Structure of Desulfurase:
Amino acid sequence: MRIWYTRCPLPTASSIAIERGMLDDEFRADGIVVQSLNASSDMTVREAHYNHGQTNLFRQGGNIPPIWSRSRGADTVVVATNWIDEYQAIVVLPSSGIQDAAGLRGKRLGMPRRLNEQIDYWRAMCLRGYLAALEIAGLEPNDVEFVDLPIDEKQIPTGGASQRGTLWRGANRARRQSREALALIRGEIDAIYTAGAPGAQLSSFMGACTVVDLGAHADSGSRVNNQVPTVLTVDGELARSAPETVARYLATLMLAARWAHEHEAETLGIVGGDVGATPEWVTAAYGADVHDQLALELDERSITAVATQKAFLLGNGFIDKDFDVGAWIDPRPLELAREMDHDRRLG
């Protein structure tokens, strides 16, 4: 049997378990091979990160691609979530004269459009961030101008197959918002949305001013986006036919989260490797206690957030077909994993 896994370049328990070989250790004795999508050079396999088209796949990361793939009929279930607030902001250059969200009225907001992606999750992220900022200021979408910024490059690169590291190479991560940054510097637009450690670094590099700090907003609904909360999805057939295998996978991530709690420096290094940042920028973007925030959950706040994200994607044309979020979520594997984890800790 072969299990596949993938994770986004974000703080996740999956990153810890993968980099420390915990999943290999858990399944080796049973002859189960645990394989990274990144170990394949076949782009059809790699892009299962978006469409969940690989059999026996576990995916932990942003919520937009799994919502998109589910709306297209992918047989998946959500078995866990994780909520880590991150740096999210609408930023401008100091020369713009824009000082707050109200100052966005009549301004040009950069909207990247990736021309060769199955799902343009970053465009969706930007739009949701802008709409949240406009709502905070009491503005409507027609009070601003959204400027399309076409991009040919795909997010997931070819080559460099590896069992361990992330699908996202350093160069690709560094260029994630180059089109937007250059448009801002050239005066083609007035503001951009940015997020995560790469976003915090980019803002600092440009000397940009934050006009809306979404990541620190008191209303958790304003903080919801692709990366808040993350979701852990698994192949539906695997969940139905081998629930114990799914639970063992989750129990291993629980072990990884506890290890992270006890090993702050090493955790920041592993997360930094995934997001492409030094520990300083990891904590700046995700909080000084990020190593304590990797535990799996499936709480009402996260479930509600996923439902609102689905509604946003449907309402703005990023997905075509509606579906029942409640029916998509299966709490049983996490419950079984907690029982396993409890028994293992008792020895």
Q: What stands out?
A: The CA atoms of residues 247 and 335 lie 8 Å apart. Residues 88-223 form a domain with the D-Maltodextrin-Binding Protein; domain 2 fold (CATH 3.40.190.270). The beta strands are 2-7, 33-36, 57-61, 76-82, 88-92, 108-114, 145-151, 192-195, 209-213, 230-235. The chain has a mean pLDDT of 95.
